[in-house]
Amino acid sequence: MITPLSLSIHPIWLQVMTKLFTGGCLCGAVRYQSKSKPESSVICHCKDCQKYSGTAFSAVVFIPINDLSISGELSSFNLKVESGHTVTRTFCKTCGSHITEGSDGYPDLAVVTTGTLDDPSWATPMMQCFTSRQHSWAKLDSSIPAFKAMPED
Questions:
Q1: Sheet of 31-34, strands arranged across
Q2: If 0-12 CB within 10 Å is exposed, 13-18 middle and 19+ buried, where does residue 137 land?
Q3: CA distance 119 to 102
Q4: Please, what is the Cα angle at 129 between 45 and 26, to 5 degrees?
Q5: Burial class (CB in 10 A: 0-12, 13-18, 19+), 87
Q6: Domains (ranges, CATH) in the chain?
Q7: Are 23 and 32 in contact (CB under 8 A)?
Q8: Which residues does 67 contact at the CB level (< 8 Å), separation at least 6?
Q9: Rounded distance, CA 92 to CA 105, Å?
């Protein structure tokens, strides 16, 4: 999977890359913080992301897994995805908010949904993937690089 560091970086990322950022679930039972910069911010239109998010796409940030700390009780489930990798999704046991995703395809990264960030204003998408599965009514800014599937490294 690509980590789109080679793509142009939005100016606000230059500000947030040195800051701690935090987030949590809807009910407040789960909280997290990252002590390092996010690797990227992605919009994913794949069917799995549509199903778990309950909408047309998922907006996420990739964070080095060792720099993410989470407090509160999480539940999880594993799912083998189209690529053949196993994805583990975690969610709050109380309210069901999706918190993280991890994959054996990118074991050093945790994926956090931008809707759970305390301040998501900086998480401007750097790319869109699986636009071949994008709903016709869910067109986003055409300046965001778009890929029909998941780009290779």
A1: 21-24, 31-34, 68-71
A2: exposed
A3: 22
A4: 50
A5: buried
A6: 32-133 (3.90.1590.10)
A7: yes
A8: 34, 35, 36
A9: 24
pLDDT of 15-31, one tens digit each? 445 568 999 999 999 99
pLDDT tens digits along 89-99:
999 999 999 99
- The DSSP-derived string for the chain is ----TTSPPPHHHHHHTTS-EEEE-SSSS-EEEESS--SEEEEE--HHHHHHHTSS-EEEEEEEGGGEEEES-EEEEEEE-TTS-EEEEEEETTT--EEEEEETTSTTEEEEEGGGBS-GGG---SEEE-GGG--TT----TTS-B-SSPPP-
